[in-house]
Amino acid sequence: MLRIPFYILLFLFSYSLQAQDILTLEEAVTLALENNYEIKIAANNSKIDATNNNLANAGMLPTLSANLNNNNSQTNTTQTQADGSQRTLNNAKNFSLTYGVGLDWTVFDGLSMFARKEQLATLEAQGKAELQATILNRISDVYLTYYDLVQQQQVMASIDSAIVISNERVTTAQNRFSIGKASKLELLNAQVDLNTDKSLLLSQKEIYKNTKIKLNELLARDLQTDFKVIQEVTFEDNLTYEELKELAAEQNPQLQAQILTKKVADLNLKQVKGNRYPTVRITSGYNFTRSEASLGFITQSSGQGFVYGVSASVPIFNGFLQNKREKVAKYEVENAAFVLGQQKLALESQMASFYQSYQTNLELTKIETENVAIAKQNLEITLAKFKIGTITTIEVRTAQQNYIEASVRYATALYNTKLSEINLKELAGTLPLK
C-alpha cells in the first residue's frame, strides 16, 4: 500500500473546517449500503426472485379448491307421460346444490415443470448478481465522489496558500509604495492577483459544495448535511492486469448476470420443447349434492362421495405453432450467447483501458511529486529575493502560479490514480464494501 501525505501547502493552511464533522470513507459506504434507494430497490427485486422460486410456481404441486354451485329456477312446466296423459304445474320450483373440495394435479407435462423450476432458481441467482452489481456501482460512485472531494480540498488548500502569498505581496507592495521604493502599478498588480486568487477560491468552493450535495444524495440523507473528508489519498501501486482479469471473469456481477441470462434462455427452449409431449392430469375430490323438483318422478335427491379421474392430452397439430415457437426460442438462445460474448469483450476492453490509465497515473504521480517539491523550492527562493527587492512582482507571480499548477496537477494525479484503482476493483468485483 502506497501512502502519499498531503503536503502541498507552503504556509499554514487557513481553510478552517472545525465546525464540520469528519465523514470517513467507511462511514460513507455504510450509510450508502443502508440508505441508498437504488440498492434498496435492487434488494427488494432480489427478494421477489427468491420468493418466486418455489415448487408451486413451477407447476409441480397440486391445486386444491373448494367449490359451490347453487342453481334455482321457477317455471311453468308441462310433462307428457308415457300413457299420453299430461301433468301441468305453474311456477314449478327446481333447486340444485353441489359443494365440495376438488384436487387437480398435473403429474407430467413433458418435463417442462422441471425446466421451469430450474429457471426460477436461475432467476433467483440472477437477481442476486444484479443486486451485487447495483451495490458495486453505487459504492463505486461513493468512492469516486468521496475522493473527488479529497482532491477538491487539496486544490482549495493550494489556492488558499496562494492567497496567503498574495496578501503578503500586497502588504509588501503597500509598504514599498509608502516609502517611495515601488510604483503604484506594482501595488495594483498585487491587488489584482489577490482578487484573482480569491475569485478562484470562491469558484472552487462552489464546486466543492455541489459535490457534497451529490455525495449526500448517494447516501440518501439530508442534502445540506455538512461534513469534511480526509485530506490524504491512499492507493495500491501493485495491481496486476492478469490477476484482475482472472478475478473479473469469475466475479464480475454484470458478467455473471449475463451468463445466467443465457441459461434462462436455454431453459426456456427446454420448456417450449416440452409442449411436444403428452400432459397427464389427476383429478379428485369429495362432493355433496342435493336437488329438488316440484314436478317429476323424483322430487328430491341428495348424495355425497369421492370423485376421481385421470386425463391425458397429446398435441397433434396446432398450425405449426410449435415449430415456430421452438425456432424463436433458439434465436433467443443465440442472441443471449451473442450478448454474453459482447459482455466478455467489453469487460476485457474496460479492464485494459483502466489498467493503462492506472499505470500512466502511477507514473504521473511520481513526476508531479517531484514537480511540487521543485516548484515549492523555486517559490521559496523567489519570495526571499522579492523581500530584498532583487526581482520583480511578475517573477513572483510566475513562481506562485507554477507552484499552484504543480500542486493541482499533483492532486489530480492522485485522484486519477485512485479513480483507476476503484474502476478496476469494481470490474473485478473486489471493491471493499466495508
Task: Please summarize what this structure is.
By secondary structure, the protein is α+β, with helices and mostly antiparallel strands.
Q: What does the secondary structure layout of this molecule look like, with pairings?
A:
Layout: E1 2-4, H1 25-35, H2 37-52, H3 55-58, E2 63-80, E3 86-108, H4 112-178, H5 184-218, E4 233-235, H6 241-251, H7 253-274, E5 279-293, E6 300-313, H8 321-387, H9 393-428
Antiparallel strand pairs: 1-4, 2-3, 3-5, 5-6
Helix pairs in contact: 1-4, 2-4, 4-5, 4-7, 4-9, 6-8, 6-9, 7-8, 8-9
Main location: membrane
Biased composition (Low complexity): 66-82
GO cellular component, one term: efflux pump complex
Care to describe what's here?
- By secondary structure, the protein is an alpha+beta fold.
- The chain has one domain (2-10, 23-77, 88-428): Outer membrane efflux proteins (OEP) (Up-down Bundle), CATH 1.20.1600.
- Helix content is 62%, strand content 18%.
- The protein has helices spanning 25-35, 37-52, 55-58, 112-178, 184-218, 241-251, 253-274, 321-387, 393-428; strands at 2-4, 63-80, 86-108, 233-235, 279-293, 300-313.
- A four-stranded antiparallel beta sheet has the order 2-3-5-6, with no helix packed on it. A two-stranded antiparallel ribbon has the order 1-4.
- α2 (37-52) runs antiparallel to α4 (112-178), α4 (112-178) runs antiparallel to α5 (184-218) and α6 runs antiparallel to α8 (321-387).
- The protein is elongated.
- Residues 1-19 have low confidence and may be disordered.
- It comes from Flavobacterium profundi.
- Residues 66-85 are annotated as: Disordered.
- Residues 1-19 form the signal peptide.
- GO terms for molecular function: efflux transmembrane transporter activity; porin activity.
